[in-house]
């Protein structure tokens, strides 16, 4: 499980990216790279990293479900994800 501070930092980055998204697009269209450089570094969407919504795990993230592979497997085996069952052939 990720530390709470790490999860909070990622949420803070998401809010900052959303706040400056319009301004970034406007400055990019105008080609004003000097003004773009003055924006906060964490306002860049490149700095975002997908994390599991439940545990905060940064690796093995499944975009379709928004959780890590470990959490996905546990939930699927418990029957908590509708339409997902273990394959057998």
TrEMBL record:
SUPFAM superfamilies: Glucocorticoid receptor-like (DNA-binding domain). InterPro entries: Ribosomal_uS14, Ribosomal_uS14_bac/plastid, Ribosomal_uS14_CS, Ribosomal_uS14_sf. The keyword Hydrolase does not apply. Gene3D superfamilies: 30s Ribosomal Protein S14, Chain N (4.10.830.10). GO terms for cellular component: ribosome. It comes from the Bacteria. Keywords: Ribonucleoprotein, Ribosomal protein, RNA-binding, rRNA-binding. Belongs to the universal ribosomal protein uS14 family. HAMAP family: Ribosomal_uS14_1. NCBIfam families: PRK08881.1. This is Small ribosomal subunit protein uS14. It comes from Sphingobacterium corticis. The lineage of its organism: Bacteria, Pseudomonadati, Bacteroidota, Sphingobacteriia, Sphingobacteriales.
């Amino acid at each position: 499980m990720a530390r709470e501070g790490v999860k909070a930092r990622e949420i803070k980055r998401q809010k900052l990216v959303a706040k400056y998204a319009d301004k970034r697009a406007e400055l990019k269209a105008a080609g004003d790279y000097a003004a773009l450089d003055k924006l906060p570094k964490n306002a860049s969407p490149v700095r975002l990293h997908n994390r599991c919504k439940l545990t905060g795990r940064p690796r093995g993230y499944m975009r379709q479900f928004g959780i890590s592979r470990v959490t996905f497997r546990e939930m699927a085996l418990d029957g908590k994800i509708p339409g997902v069952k273990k394959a057998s052939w």
